[in-house]
Amino acid sequence: MNTDQQILVPIPALFSFQECLWFLNRNYDDCLHVISDNTIYKALEIDGEIVLTSIRESGPFLEIAVLKGNVSPASKNYLVAYVTEWFDMQRSIQPFYDLLALDGRLAYMVHDFKGLRLIGIDNLFEAICWCIIGQQINLSFAYKVKRRLVERFGGKIEHDGQHYFVFPTAEVLAQATMDELKAMQFSEKKAEYIIGIAKAFASGALSKSAIEALPDFTSRKRALTDHKGIGAWTANYALMKSLKEPEGIPHGDIGLLNALSHHNIIQDRSETLKIEALFNAFKGWESYLVFYLWRSLAVKDLS
DNA sequence: CCCCAGGCGGCAG
DNA sequence: CTGCCGCATGGG
C-alpha cells in the first residue's frame, strides 16, 4: 500500500475503537460500511469522486487509508475531519461519566461501555431519510429497505470484486418515482415523505448549514418539523446524530423506552415526568445518555 | 388473527 | 396544547 495515502489521527482519552466497531456491526446489515478483521471499509464522496477508505486502530492512532481513488492534501484534511466527527473524537466525555457515576442504575455503563462515542451521521439528508425509513417498523426490516434504496440510487465504488455504496444524493432521490419506492416496500406515505424531503434538499429549501446557522435548538427543530414526514422523533434524532445536539432526545422512541424500563427507571411508557427528571440530571449530555441506553439494549440479562 | 415495530399527520376537544 | 385515531408494511 502506498504510505502517502495513509493518515493518522491521534486517539483521545476515553475512546474505544472496539466500541465503535461494535456499534457499526451490531447484528444489523448496514449497507453503508463493511467491517472485517477489526477494520471499517467505507466509501465516501469527496469533491464529486467516490473513494474507498479503511479505518483501523494502530497503536495510539486511528489509521485512515485510501484504498481506491486519489485524494489531494485538502481531501486528507477532510478525511480527518470526517472521522473525527463520525466518532465524536473531539469531545471530552469525562463529565458525562461523572454524571453516570452519580446514578446507581446507570453507573455500570462507565465501565461496561467505556469509550463508546456517539456515532454520527454527518449527512443530514441521509439521517432524515434513515429516520423516515425506520418510522414505526422494526430495525432489521428498516435496514433491508435502506439497502434497496441505496443499491438502486446510491453511488458506488468497486474494489476486489465488492461494491461499496454511498447514500443517494437528494438530487437523485428527488427524481425517484412513487412506484419505484413502493416497489422497495416503502409505504405510500414514506415514499411521499422521502421524495418531498429530497426535493427540499435539492432546491436548497432545507440544508444542514442553514439549520446549523439558526440561533437555538427550538428553531432548528422547528425548521425540520416544518417538513412533511419529519415529526418530533425524527427531528430530535437527526439533530442528535447529524448536528450532535446534546438536547436531541428522540422522545417516545421505543428503544429508549424499553431501555428505561429495563433499568427500572419507568414502569410504563406514560411516565414522562420520571423521564424528564432523568434527563434533567444529564443537562448537556442528554443525547449521550440516549445513545448509551440504546447501547444497553444489546446486553441480554439486565432484568 | 393478533400485536408490535427506534412515528406521523390530522383532527377533535 | 393534548389526546386519540387511522394509516402502512413486514415480522413473530
Automatic annotation (TrEMBL):
Top-rank taxon: Bacteria
Record's keyword terms, sorted: DNA damage, DNA repair
Enzymatic reactions: Hydrolysis of alkylated DNA, releasing 3-methyladenine, 3-methylguanine, 7-methylguanine and 7-methyladenine
UniProt GO cellular component terms: cytoplasm; protein-DNA complex
Domain HhH-GPD: 133-298
UniProt EC number: 3.2.2.21
Similarity comment text for this entry: Belongs to the alkylbase DNA glycosidase AlkA family.
PANTHER family linked: DNA-3-METHYLADENINE GLYCOSYLASE
Protein name (database record): DNA-3-methyladenine glycosylase II
